[in-house]
Design goal:
With 192 residues, the protein is mainly β. Helix content is 9%, strand content 56%. The chain has one helix and eight strands; from the N terminus they run αββββββββ.
Length: 192
């Protein structure tokens, strides 16, 4: 049964993550900090004007309840502009920051969440004016974002590793849309 072997590894990993002892592993709640690395990919029609680029994100916030958190984030990504020459070999950075709300639930050591928020974006250069993504002199925009992910809580209940994917839209930049993916480490202060 060669076809079944492809399903064995994911099933074993899921069983290990969701299985375990009958005792629930309590997670810390309180103030938290997250640091993440990932990538930002623009969605059509702008995906042809900018390459996928590396991204980093820092988040801080407060768990109001075990299922509800309020947070602030700052993020930066760097992209090669793939606009028709000239220019060629140009890069730009997208800086973002804002606040969000996270709703979640936990099954043993695995937590699932949905998040959404609003913020601001700044682009470092005008290279996308050529494709009319930016108007002349435009550098700032409001940003809307939403997404979700999951995290695995380590034995030390203050630490968790996670994976998240957020979609964001930047209306003033011709409704630029992108996906922000990240792997992160979260530390929660407090014992509640």
């Amino acid at each position: 049964m060669k076809g079944c072997s492809a399903f064995r590894v994911p099933l074993v990993l899921a069983g290990l993550a969701l299985g375990g002892s009958a005792e629930a592993r309590p997670a810390s709640t309180g103030f938290y900090a997250e640091g993440g690395l990932g990538a930002v990919a623009f969605l059509p029609p702008d995906s042809g004007d900018a390459a996928v680029g590396p991204a980093m994100q820092i988040r801080v916030g407060r768990d109001l309840f075990s299922f509800l958190s309020l947070g602030l984030f700052v993020a930066a990504s760097s992209h090669e502009a793939t606009v028709p020459a000239p220019p060629s070999g140009e890069w730009f950075q997208l800086y973002r920051g804002g606040g969000d709300l996270r709703l979640g639930g936990r099954v043993n050591a695995v937590a699932f969440f949905l998040e959404g928020g609003v913020g601001a974006s700044m682009i470092s250069t005008n290279v996308l004016e050529k494709t009319m993504t930016l108007d002349p002199g435009e550098k700032f925009s409001i940003e809307f974002r939403g997404g979700g992910g999951f995290e695995y809580q380590l034995e030390n209940r203050h630490y968790a590793f996670g994976v998240a994917v957020d979609a964001f839209m930047v209306p003033q930049f011709s409704a630029l849309k992108a996906l922000d993916t990240r792997l992160y480490l979260r530390y929660t202060y407090g014992g509640g």
